[in-house]
């Protein structure tokens, strides 16, 4: 994939765990354009390999002089956020150009934007774009507490935005049933945040009667709780390889560690680039891009999904 050499031009601390970075072309060249919902990929050295990590663009314009991203530190993650938080102004890195797997639907006459935590980054870009275009929207932003809310001032400055705080207890936070409301013709819902938050929003929207083609999401992965997973074996029939996947590693990372070259992009289970077929075993699906029908026919995302059985056989 083509990369651009970029330089960190500015860094801001938004919360104790979230820092904002501004990236410019190292040679001063114009930046490729983009639309709200787009992300860029940072090439990050992890375990001796260059791996891609996707971060949403917060900018609202497709003619930006710099790309704005915000990265939340995940000390127990795979290492990408730790590396980004160590960057300093003037450092250079390779970046893949903007790609948009979470675009606004031009046919939508109004939009309901819902963000949880660091999921505000693409949602704020959407709100800024809609406001500039004069298109109606409502934005609801949930966080544990005010001190953990990145872009709080920018969100509060929007006329159609509401901030919610749950103090760590989801039952005290955003009232999803009334916030989402009944479906309206040509009104679309966009949600971004941790997997559990997205699942709750989408399930409530469906219970409220929203059609699936009016629901759009992008996932920001959260680190699984310690001890939540167990190891298993995965047999890759096309490769002729059987691997042990420990509880702390994804199937995708196990393949990379074994010297294989799998096709992937987001590593979050929301783009579908890595989808393969389960030939045997019981899958533990953790993606958000596959429908129930896709899963029933055996589709599977090795970047995030795991096995409920001791052994899983994949068409890879």
TrEMBL record:
Residues 1-105 form the FAD-binding FR-type domain. Residues 232-316 form the 2Fe-2S ferredoxin-type domain. The keyword Transport does not apply. InterPro entries: 2Fe-2S_ferredoxin-like_sf (IPR036010), 2Fe-2S_ferredoxin-type (IPR001041), 2Fe2S_fd_BS (IPR006058), Beta-grasp_dom_sf (IPR012675), Cbr1-like_FAD-bd_dom (IPR008333), FAD-bd_FR_type (IPR017927), FNR_nucleotide-bd (IPR039261), MRET (IPR050415). GO terms for molecular function: 2 iron, 2 sulfur cluster binding; metal ion binding; oxidoreductase activity. CDD domains: fer2, PDR_like. PROSITE patterns: 2FE2S_FER_1 (PS00197), 2FE2S_FER_2 (PS51085), FAD_FR (PS51384). Keywords: 2Fe-2S, Flavoprotein, Iron, Iron-sulfur, Metal-binding, Oxidoreductase. Pfam families: FAD_binding_6, Fer2, NAD_binding_1. It comes from the Bacteria. This is Oxidoreductase.
